Amino acid sequence: RTLERELADAIDAGQLRLHYQPVVDPHDGHIVGAEALVRWAHPERGLLGADRFIDVAEGCGLVVPLGSWVLETACAQLAAWHAAGAEGLQLAINVSALQLRDEGFPARVAAAVRRHGLPRHALELELTEVTLLADGDATHRAVAALRAAGVRLAVDDFGCGYSSLATLKMLQPDRMKIDRSFVRDLPHSAGDGALVQAMFGMARALDVEVVAEGVETEAHRVWLLGCGPHLQQGWLWARALPADEFAALLLTLA
Ligand code: G
Ligand code: G
Ligand code: MN
Ligand code: NA
């Protein structure tokens, strides 16, 4: 059977999982939130990363039901963690272009947040520049509706699209997530360093929070601290973890 046919059944069969990668304060490693990343516990192929099947889902229209499952599961998990005492915890989910253009999406987001009794700003939606370029009017309407719903919006993979500045202007995001390709060669690459500093400058001027992605080393952590206040995500801190391991990590740091 093709991956496409199997994926159609995987949602109903309960084969999807969410893993959670901590988003931390780089001064002390305090966990501020997490990014939910979808996995597929495939009965024969093992645990598949999103890069193995998100494109497939996009190509066959399954990304909308898959995205709804992610939204629902993430909100339920976040509500459980809030109830267990991690009250300020934030959670980000990734949103694909087709999902954003789906007419019912903003209403589903608002309903999920309400149903799970979450503060609206506890949920963050990550949109890439490419996602936002997809379709003028529908995208603008969706962004306006999501703003009205009160959830937080982040530009993901910042700097990797065709029009990073246009994206900032249009989306007016709460956060920019600096793509890990700009972080990888720090502090050695003077060019990447200048670009990262320019991104921090833009973020400051526009009052947008910064998350630096792909922080893998102590040298990354320290160099980025010199750029200004921000949050970090990356293997220096933790990989994306199953829910129980993420909860255990929260407890050890509390
Ligand atoms: O964690 P991983 O390497 O599998 O992620 C690969 C890519 O898949 C990343 O670009 C990530 O943003 C994307 N991705 C992960 N989870 C989701 C999801 O739930 N929905 C969408 N649309 N993309 C996701
Ligand atoms: O596009 P997005 O930023 O959503 O992608 C998230 C992806 O980045 C996930 O696949 C996650 O596994 C991966 N990732 C997270 N932290 C690191 C890191 O420190 N180094 C590298 N190389 N990849 C990372
Ligand atoms: Mn992301
Ligand atoms: Na990213």
From TrEMBL:
Coiled coil: none annotated. It comes from the Bacteria. Residues 1-254 form the EAL domain. This is EAL domain-containing protein.
